[in-house]
Amino acid sequence: MQDEKKSALTQKEAPEAVAQKKASVSEDLFASFDFENLEIDLKEMFKAGVHFGHQKSKKNPKMADYIFGIRNGINIIDLEKTVVKLQEAQKFLDKIVSEGNDVLFVGTKKQAKKIVENAAKKCEMPYVIERWLGGTFTNYRVISSRTRYLKDMQEKMKKGDLSRYTKFEQMKIAEDLEKMETKMGGIKYMSKLPSAIIVTGVIEDNLAIKEARKKGIPIIGLVDTNVDPSEIDFPIPTNEDAVSSLKLMLAYLTKTVLMAKKKVVVKKIQPIK
What we know:
Layout: H1 2-22, H2 42-48, E1 52-55, E2 67-71, E3 74-77, H3 79-98, E4 103-106, H4 113-123, E5 127-128, H5 140-159, H6 167-184, E6 196-199, H7 206-214, E7 219-223, E8 234-237, H8 243-269
Parallel strand pairs: 4-5, 4-6, 6-7, 7-8
Antiparallel strand pairs: 1-3, 2-3
Helix pairs in contact: 3-8, 4-8, 5-6
């Protein structure tokens, strides 16, 4: 029993350090997934540790409906309810994406960053993995002007249009652009506010959630046993700390986006009657 407890805690804590050592910018974290044939599978969820919640003492009362029980002091998520909520989120996601709308992926906690970036790039959707920039939604006009500047300057640098500056000035411009790319590179091609956001950490991504609610943007979120799910429009009860759990749950959502985007393409090529 003690070993099971240690295993459960390891599922929650160790992945963060491991993920940072293994993940690289060019690595495809979803290379092992066959999205065409990927189906929701309770066994795969168990294997990925999706059912491991936080310790009993950290339970948020509003998550009670999603908790199956307690084992060795750890809250166990009811995966059958996870499946139901996941399917509800997928149905909504399919609708908005198939209508040609964008979804913003948000994951600022350490173990989620590379996974979220990979998922968003695979879907060709915008993403935020660094600190949320205040006003990204509520003051979008200013943020979009900064992203336009970033794109324009990067394009000028590629074309060599900055040759009129000294080498030192070019170096400073390049450094500033690199910092901007880190902060807002994931949203520089976002031409309008997204029709929904996907968050992987309710606590870590709380600023994004607050701004989304202010602007009436629907929120799909992975919710662990220690958070308040009431602020999330489509909460999906999940172990949001383990890398294996994050990858699987984001893979399910990624597949939904990819399949929905195909519907958009089909609609575009259909002949006008």
